Amino acid sequence: MAHYMNCGTDDERSDFFAFNDYSWCAPSSFTTSTWSKKVDAFKDYSIPIFLSEYGCTKTARTWEEIPTLYSDKMSGVYSGGLVYEYTKEEDAVQQKFGLVEVKSDSEVTERPDFGTLQKAFANVDPPAGNGGAKSSGSPSTCPTKSPTWLVSDDRLPKMPENAKKFFTAKDGAGDGVGLDGPGSQEAGDESGGFATPGSGAPTATGSVTGSSTGSSSSSGTSAATAVRIPPFSFAPLVCGMVVLASSLLGGAMLL
């Protein structure tokens, strides 16, 4: 999957790739947790990669992996990660991993892991500048069909004609209309065939002219530069990870 998401022309490749990893359980280390091997495995990967979920699920979570994840041991390859998980679930097994418990639309209670994680982030001193990120890289080779990979065609569908207007400055995405009904994901026309590789182009939504981490600031790019977003400080990144983790959880509950 990782190679598939990073293969083909620039307009075919994904903006990023991420995977879940719960292997760091205290006491552990960069090598014992096998995170060192995961850095080596993706050292030549040419789109941003991060941990879509992390946090031990077997023992008490002390978050001792945080300093390593946001150190130059990993920042040259990984763009951080999303903690598992923001809200307490109803499931008897999964509920112990929630950082907060949502009591109502206006009441959220912090659970013990929240404070422990907060302290771990407060003690992090992330690398200055680009953190050792590569400024170049080549697409992966598309995997061939096999018993474990059933995709035989790497072509992508053309964008449906009626969907193009949502990518213009005039119309934009518009208001959210829900999961069904007119204008939803279940409405609209279908694709009219396959797109020609290279016929499109990645759309830049911003540019990175420098980076700032903690009290240090220097010119450069981060491991997430290819996402093409404006520069941001470390504090909003932490908040963003929590929000995105919550969004991912909500999406998973709908599936």
Description of the molecule:
It is a single chain. The protein has 255 residues and is of the alpha/beta class. 18% of the residues lie in helices and 13% in strands. It is built from five helices and seven strands, in the order αβαβαβββαββα. It has helices at residues 2-5, 35-41, 66-69, 112-122, 234-254; strands at residues 17-21, 49-54, 78-83, 100-104, 107-110, 211-213, 216-218. Strands 1-2-3 form a three-stranded parallel β-sheet. The two termini are 20 Å apart. The model is unreliable at 205-240 and 242-255 (pLDDT under 50).
Outline of the structure:
The protein is α/β, with parallel strands linked by helices and about 260 residues long. It is built from 5 helices and 7 strands. The chain has helices at about 1-5, 35-40, 65-70, 110-120, 235-255, and strands at about 15-20, 50-55, 80-85, 100-105, 105-110, 210-215, 215-220.
Strands, helices and their partners?
Elements: H1 2-5, E1 17-21, H2 35-41, E2 49-54, H3 66-69, E3 78-83, E4 100-104, E5 107-110, H4 112-122, E6 211-213, E7 216-218, H5 234-254
Parallel strand pairs: 1-2, 2-3
Antiparallel strand pairs: 4-5, 6-7
Features:
13% strand; globular; alpha/beta; 5 helices; 18% helix; 3-stranded parallel β-sheet; two-stranded antiparallel sheet; 255 residues; disordered C terminus
Main sheet characteristics: 3 strands, parallel
- Backbone structural class: alpha/beta
The main sheet orders its strands as 1-2-3
First-residue to last-residue Cα separation? 20 Å
* Spans of at least 5 consecutive residues with low confidence: 205-240, 242-255
Q: What is the helical fraction, as a range of percent?
A: 10-25%
Overall pLDDT: 79
Q: Please count the beta strands (DSSP E, at least 2 residues each).
A: 7
| Global outline | globular
Order of helices and strands: HEHEHEEEHEEH
Oligomer classification = single chain
Q: Whole-number radius of gyration?
A: 20 Å
Total number of helices: 5
Strand content bin: 5-15%
